[in-house]
Design goal:
Largest sheet of chain B: 6 strands, parallel
Radius of gyration of chain A: 19 Å
Number of strands of chain A: 2
Strand order of the largest sheet of chain B: 2-1-3-4-5-6
Number of helices of chain B: 16
Distance between the termini of chain B: 34 Å
Structural class of chain A: alpha+beta
Largest interface: A-B, 31 and 43 residues
Order of helices and strands of chain B: HHEHEHHEHEHEEHEHEHEHEHEHEHHHE
Shape of chain A: elongated
Number of strands of chain B: 13
CATH architecture of the largest domain in chain B: 3-Layer(aba) Sandwich
Helix content of chain B: 40-55%
Oligomer: heterodimer
Order of helices and strands of chain A: EHHHHHHEHHHHH
Number of helices of chain A: 11
Distance between the termini of chain A: 24 Å
Structural class of chain B: alpha/beta
Chain lengths: ~220, ~400
């Protein structure tokens, strides 16, 4: 018999690394050396910290380049880097560095701009706890989704991709153990882009997918 | 009036309160002591007055101690405050001696309690030396800095750093306030309590009293700045902005300041503000006692726009309060104000009295935009700056300190 699905929740803490960048060259220099957890925080952490649900830029690098260095070109290039496209954070780091270095080669303007507010590298610390809710069969998962907290959804749908080989979400991983019956549902879940959706919107999408594939 | 956790569920939702209980289950019975320098007045005292009872309700043995000092002590700690916010103050050795002496007396008085605590949270520079002075202790110590220390006057920070660096962790309101320290520096913005006297929903009759208290009339627009009479809050700049805007439209200004026991400069600044206002009948300067919470609440509610034209600001809880009442905020582009005032969404960020005047004129002639911004502002506070979020982060941090400092902690 399949093990029950354990609903967990999490809380994310932000820790200042002490590393700061005042211009693009410094950003590249610091990016080489900072803890990989900083990349995680600056790409994903925004979902659980104060900001508008639908910000102008999804990652902090693009936002800082736009608002502090006023480099719209690089901001646009950085904004389309989708972290889920990379197997691990080191590859994501490489991609970021390549974009920044290319921009430094392109124009001297990039060397001249100095930010009023520096880029402060932050890393995250995640505390995961048990909600004591257990789901025994897939239909129970459908019922719980609308009531999941945003942070619980973050843990099971986004953070899971760091923990599970194949970068699945927890729901898909658990459903796959029930055989082929849920393959289409799993496929539909894999098409939800967690990066371009806020958590509240994501909960709605996941709910709709469950409703479509598991009609009452 | 103390509110229990369930009362908050009506505002933030049941899942948020359930979340707090689940986290707190792992902290049952631990002893937590908060220490600051004043019981009344100022944002820190207000936060602690609410946070500590809620922690107790969650099963944590939380308490709050206040250090005792005299005028000379608060004179020097005010200099620290000004120096850390960037003023080039000079603090003579004799005054530093006074600072250390008062802290030593407080360490003697509080030693037994602090030594036994599992977690000690020391707020701001005033009691910072306590850790070095208490000696052997059982728990983890956290230094919580509420002020904007992004560009400190270096000699002042160098002196204070000596006391702060030995803590197990520190907490800062914004990432760019963090300094070079040998321990984890957590980023936790402060919060307001939606059920406190200062922020609860008021009856119409309670709001009406603000007109009597301030002397403003109901016919003309009102702009309000609530804050201590402190130069960093730029009350003179507010009067200049009001005068510039008033040349184009009818306008009334309320400057409501509270007194804080640990701020000896307040009287002097208040005098300067009164001199600047001269006898303008539409500038209403109110020096309110520290327990004027309902009065402040009503003043913010009769405002068309909230101002917070600070030139330095740790966080700016009066901004949060104004936004919670559904008002757009015109705020100085500094410190924690930038985290709350999202330019063109929840208000406007400004750099000068001229900028503030221009935005006042804009909002007061675009009523639909004014209302839309106010609505957005309230939603933004609901999702990000209420006490329940603050409490959750404190609990998470305590769990992290007690259970280990790994990047991922599975309970």
């Amino acid at each position: 018999m399949q093990e029950p699905f354990i609903i967990k929740d999490c809380a994310l803490l932000a820790i200042a690394s002490g590393e700061k960048a005042h211009n693009l060259q410094e950003l590249a220099d610091r990016l080489v050396m900072v803890h990989a957890g900083c990349l995680y925080y600056h790409f994903w952490g925004g979902m659980l910290r104060p900001r508008f649900e639908d910000p102008e830029f999804r990652n902090d690098f693009a936002s800082w380049v736009r608002h502090e260095l006023h480099d719209e070109v690089l901001a646009e290039r950085l904004s389309i880097i989708i972290p889920t496209d990379y197997i691990d954070l080191e590859l994501l780091r490489q991609e970021l560095l390549e974009e920044i270095e290319e921009r430094l080669d392109e124009t001297e303007y990039s060397y001249l701009m100095r930010a009023q507010v520096p880029f402060n590298f932050i890393r995250s610390q995640i505390v995961v706890f048990d909600t004591h809710i257990r789901i025994k069969e897939p239909r129970g998962l459908k019922e719980i989704i609308p009531n999941l907290s945003r942070s619980s959804l973050f843990y099971h749908f986004i953070d899971a991709r760091r923990r599970i080989e194949g970068r699945h979400d927890d729901f898909s991983e658990w459903l796959s153990a029930f055989g082929k019956e849920y393959d289409e549902l799993i496929e539909a879940l894999s098409n939800v882009d967690p990066y371009l959706t806020g958590l509240s919107e994501m909960r709605e999408r996941v709910k709709r997918i469950f409703n479509r594939h598991m009609p009452d | 009036m103390t509110q229990n956790l369930e009362s908050y569920a009506e505002i933030v939702g049941n899942d948020v309160v359930r979340h707090l209980r689940q986290l707190a289950d792992h902290l049952t019975g631990i002893k937590v002591v908060h220490v600051n320098s004043t019981r009344y007045g100022g944002g820190v005292a207000e936060i602690l007055a609410r946070l500590v009872p809620l922690k107790r309700e969650l099963g944590i043995d939380a308490s709050w101690e206040v250090i005792e000092g005299d005028k000379d002590f608060y004179d020097v700690t005010k200099k620290f405050h000004n120096g850390l916010q960037g003023n080039r103050v000079v603090i003579p050795e004799t005054q530093l001696g006074k600072y250390e002496e008062i802290n030593a007396e407080n360490a003697d008085r509080l030693r037994d309690k602090l030594k036994e605590a599992d977690v000690v949270v020391i707020h701001d520079p005033q009691p910072a030396p306590l850790l070095r002075l208490v000696g052997d202790h059982k728990g983890k110590w956290i230094w919580r800095c509420h002020i904007d220390i992004s560009r400190p006057h270096r000699p002042v920070w160098k002196y204070l750093r000596n006391y702060v660096s030995v803590y197990n962790a520190s907490i800062w309101s914004l990432s760019w306030f963090a300094q070079n320290l040998p321990h984890p520096q957590y980023i936790i913005p402060p919060s307001i309590d939606p059920l406190s006297e200062k922020n609860r929903q008021l009856k119409k009759s309670e709001i009406e009293k603000a007109f009597e208290l301030s002397g403003v009339d109901r016919e003309r627009p009102v702009v309000v700045q609530v804050s201590r009479f402190d130069r960093f809050k730029d009350p003179i700049g507010v009067i200049q902005a009001y005068r510039l805007a008033k040349t184009f439209m009818p306008l009334q200004l309320i400057l409501a300041g509270g007194e804080a026991a640990d701020d000896p400069e307040g009287d002097l600044v208040l005098k300067e503000v009164r001199n600047t206002a001269e006898d303008d009948p539409d500038v209403h300067i109110l020096n309110l006692p520290p327990d004027s919470h309902v009065e402040i609440n009503s003043l913010q509610r009769i405002a068309d726009i909230i101002l917070q034209k600070s030139i330095r600001e740790g966080f700016g809880l009066t901004v949060t309060e104004g936004m919670w009442k559904g008002k757009p905020v015109i705020g100085g582009d500094t410190g924690g104000i930038t985290l709350q005032v999202i330019d063109h969404h929840t208000g406007f960020l400004v750099h000068t009295p001229e900028g503030a005047a221009m935005r006042m004129r804009y909002l007061l002639t675009h009523d639909t935009i004014l209302k839309r911004m106010g609505k957005k502002a309230r939603t933004f506070v609901l999702e990000n700056f209420l006490l329940t979020r603050h409490l959750r982060e404190y609990l998470t941090l305590m769990v992290a300190l007690v259970k280990g400092m790994d990047e991922r902690i599975e309970l």
